[in-house]
Amino acid sequence: MITEQVRRLIETASHVFVATADSSGLPHIAIGEQVTITGNSLLVFENWFCPVTLQNIGANTHVSVVIFEPETGSGYQLICSVARNDNAAIHGGDSAKAVPVNPEVLTRFTVKIHQVLGLSSGIHSDIPIIG
Containing domain of residue 65, as a range? Predict the structure, then answer.
């Protein structure tokens, strides 16, 4: 599913954008930094995501991931679904104290890529190039 060109861009990107939506369709964007590729169709994120992102992926597993090169004005949109979601750590919380209200949570979640679309700041189609 992931071509070498897509793989290289994911591995060299300093940030990727993660679009989620709640159960009513209200969208939300987050920025991910720690992304690894597993196999040929899985991305693993490990980031301090905000509570809205975490609530959204719990209620609606459809996710869009954008990898973009500002220098070229092009990149990819990956149409994905959440395959696994784990809270790795809670910032400011430990077993001896109560968890703070709205804590920052180090989250590890895995998404399965279903389609890859080309993305450009210019004219482009939304026809999948992979998937």
Answer: 4-130
By the 8 A CB rule, do 42 and 83 touch?
A: yes
pLDDT tens for each residue of 9-60: 999 998 999 999 999 999 999 998 889 999 999 999 988 788 888 889 999 9
Which of 33, 113, 47 is CA-nearest to residue 85?
Answer: 47
Model confidence, pTM = 0.83
Dihedral Cα 108, 112, 113, 114, nearest 10 deg: -150
Q: CATH number of the domain at 122, please.
A: 2.30.110.10
Which among 50, 61, 25 is positioned nearest to 107, based on CA atoms?
A: 50
Count of domains for the chain:
1
Question: Are 40 and 2 spatial neighbours (Cβ–Cβ below 8 Å)?
Answer: yes
Any alpha helices (H) in the chain, and if so which ranges? 4-12, 51-59
Q: Alpha-carbon distance 69 to 76, whole Å?
A: 9
